[in-house]
């Protein structure tokens, strides 16, 4: 009977750990979805700014281009973070 009790305890522990992992995975997934949704907003900003910068008829200042670059760098970092978390 002792072996059976040990096995039952092991199963309980495994079940509990599995439930905790599933919860963390779900939460991480939600966090990544939220982070990606925010990244999509930045992507829209960068695309708009890039189109304005590419338009030869529009005058764009160095300051405007620098601000667009900052948003682009932030977006790059965000994508890198998301990719790394997905591959872990």
Q: Give helix % range.
A: over 70%
Integer count of domains: 1
SSE run: HH
Continuous helix count: 2
Q: How many DSSP-defined strands?
A: 0
Hey, roughly how much beta strand do the residues contain? under 5%
CATH architecture designation: Up-down Bundle
Rg: 24 Å
Q: Rough shape? A: rod-shaped
Termini distance? 41 Å
Largest beta-sheet characterization:
none
Which fold does the CATH topology refer to? Single alpha-helices involved in coiled-coils or other helix-helix interfaces
Low-confidence runs: none
CATH first level:
Mainly Alpha
Mean pLDDT: 84
Structural class: mainly alpha
Protein name: Putative cell wall-binding protein
Task: Walk me through the structure.
This is Putative cell wall-binding protein. It comes from Desulfoprunum benzoelyticum. The longest helix has 53 residues, at 2-54. This protein has one domain: Up-down Bundle (Single alpha-helices involved in coiled-coils or other helix-helix interfaces), CATH 1.20.5. The protein is 90% helix and 0% strand. By secondary structure, it is an all-alpha fold. The protein is rod-shaped and about 85 Å long. The chain has two helices and no strands. Helix 1 packs antiparallel against helix 2. The mean pLDDT is 84. The chain has helices spanning 2-54, 62-87. The two termini are 41 Å apart.
Write the layout of secondary structure elements.
Elements: H1 2-54, H2 62-87
Helix pairs in contact: 1-2
Keywords summarizing the entry:
mainly alpha; Single alpha-helices involved in coiled-coils or other helix-helix interfaces; 88 residues; Putative cell wall-binding protein; 0% strand
């Amino acid at each position: 009977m002792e072996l059976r009790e040990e096995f039952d305890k092991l199963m309980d522990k495994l079940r509990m750990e599995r439930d905790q992992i599933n919860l963390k995975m779900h939460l991480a997934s939600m966090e990544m979805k939220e982070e990606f949704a925010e990244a999509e907003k930045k992507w829209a900003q960068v695309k708009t700014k890039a189109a304005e910068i590419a338009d030869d008829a529009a005058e764009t200042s160095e300051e405007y281009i620098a601000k667009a670059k900052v948003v682009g760098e932030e977006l790059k970092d965000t994508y890198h973070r998301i990719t790394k978390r997905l591959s872990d």
